[in-house]
Predict the 3D structure of the following.
Amino acid sequence: MPALVASRFNPDLKAKYDQLKAAGKAPKVAITAIMRKLIVLANALLRKNRKWAQKPA
């Protein structure tokens, strides 16, 4: 569920999702890639004891 929300509302992850779909990947495969990116991001933040901060516009 978080990957679906992220692929709709997070600009960076939405761009990645759209890029994967444009490359011919199935929607489930693209969502799985977004899930993996979220897990890697969460792991990195926890490991460095940092909070997530959105990039300034």
User: Anything to note?
Assistant: Residues 2-47 form one domain. Residues 27-47 form the longest helix (21 residues). The chain has one domain: 2-47. The chain has a mean pLDDT of 92.
